[in-house]
Write a structure and sequence with these properties.
2 strands; about 425 residues; globular; two-stranded antiparallel sheet
Length: about 425
């Protein structure tokens, strides 16, 4: 009787289980890794002590996904962890591939192959820089001898540069920069220094010979060391300080025997040294500042346009409007010839400075200083030959000593980083 009662109880439990499953479909399970199957309302344990129905004990077989009351479900955390693991694996693989040396096959380029075209490009730019500088100094001196108005001529030169820059941007030959007012305010001191440096150079060229102006401008390394000590806290080596002695001595020796010596021309050239060195340091800093995202051409273009806007009021306040056809005719100047020379001087002025800034972005400041020293030699010799400037032996000796000191200074500055690296 007990076995029949147990069988009856088991049969009734099975029928109750099936009815419960038909009446109450299983709810949607939550998204977790494992969930427990909730008990059915109709399958409460009977009072006579029957156990929970399980598969193989009289109850219908449960699906494989929920056997044992547990169901493995996909987990978002597991998927994210797997994605991260895959990404880390791919990152390690890419890093290993980048660190491994390239295969030495026949298709690889030899090391330094790309440096040859770059060297040729820099050499061509230096040659163009020298030629434009020679023609600028010759035509500029001719214009200054005819009309001694350095502020007006400087403004005209900046106006010529602004014309070429505007044409370049309008024809989309170079992308126009998009800057904020804050960035323009940052470039304002640079434009002011650039404008004053060219004004001082033209004042000096109008008062003394071209060769003497460039002899005085050989003192630029002295101002470079002075600015580094005052504003950067750099202490020059004894050898670098020693190289300044022949520079200063050569300039003094050349000044004592200079036929066209003039104190205004002398101090204007010295002021030009100070402003140009300050401009070079600040320009290099702005070119390496990734926040501004400016290339060398746009930096020089913005600086030129802003210098023109700054030089115009200075010209009007110092010299007024004197570069007019009526004034030139009354002074006995050939207006057409003067305009051609002024236009050529302005064109050479703009492009030689733009090439100089492009070189400053491609080479180190020391290399730029070395090429600038050699440029002074070329300009001095060409101007002496063109204008027939009288040079005494002592004057030529002083100029040579000053330029030799500049070259020695450049070599010592160039060798300084190598000694630190060793």
């Amino acid at each position: 009787m007990q076995s029949m009662a147990a069988a009856c109880s088991s049969s009734s439990s099975s029928r109750a289980w099936a009815a419960a499953r038909r009446s109450y479909p299983p709810p949607a399970l939550p998204s977790s890794r494992h969930v427990a199957l909730p008990p059915s309302p109709s399958s409460a344990p009977p009072s006579h002590g029957c156990r929970w129905p399980v598969a193989g004990a009289g109850a219908p077989a449960l699906p494989h996904s929920i056997r044992g009351g547990l169901r493995p479900l996909p987990s978002a955390l597991l998927a994210a962890g797997g994605a991260r693991a895959g990404a880390a694996t791919r990152t390690r693989t890419a890093a290993a591939a980048a660190a491994s040396p390239p295969a030495a096959d026949g298709g690889g380029k030899p090391e330094g192959a790309d440096g040859i075209p770059q060297t040729l490009q820099v050499g061509a730019m230096i040659l163009v820089w020298y030629l434009l500088n020679i023609y600028f100094n010759i035509y500029n001196k001719l214009v200054l001898k005819a009309v001694p108005f350095p502020y007006t001529i400087t403004t005209f030169q900046f106006a010529s540069g602004s014309f070429f820059i505007t044409l370049m941007w309008l024809l989309n030959l170079h992308p126009r920069p998009r800057l904020s007012l804050k960035q323009y305010a940052k470039f304002l001191p640079l434009a002011l220094i650039h404008m004053l440096g060219n004004v001082f150079t033209n004042v000096s060229l109008g008062k003394v010979a071209v060769s003497f102006t460039h002899t005085i401008k050989a003192m630029e390394p002295f101002f470079s060391v002075l600015l580094s000590v005052l504003f950067l806290g750099e202490t020059p080596s004894v050898l670098v300080l020693g190289s300044l002695v022949p520079i200063a001595g050569g300039v003094v020796l050349a000044s004592m025997t200079e036929v066209s010596f003039n104190w205004i021309g002398f101090w204007s050239a010295m002021a030009s040294n100070l402003t140009n060195q300050s401009r070079n340091v600040l320009s290099k800093k702005l070119l390496t500042d990734k926040e501004d995202n400016l290339d060398d051409i746009n930096l020089f273009s913005i600086m030129t346009v802003m210098s023109f806007l700054l030089s115009a009021p200075l010209m009007l306040s110092v010299e007024g409007i004197k570069f007019s056809p009526s004034y030139l005719q009354s002074a006995g100047v050939n207006v057409k010839e003067l305009c051609v020379k002024a236009a050529l001087a302005g064109t050479c002025f703009h492009f030689y400075q733009q090439v100089s800034y492009s070189l400053l972005a491609r080479v180190s400041p020391v290399t730029h200083s070395v090429t600038n020293s050699l440029k002074r030699v070329v300009v001095i010799v060409s101007s002496v030959l063109f204008f027939g400037t009288p040079l005494s032996p002592i004057n030529a000796l002083g100029t040579g000593i000053a330029l030799a000191g500049v070259f020695l200074y450049s070599q010592l500055k160039k060798a300084k980083p190598k000694s630190k690296a060793a």
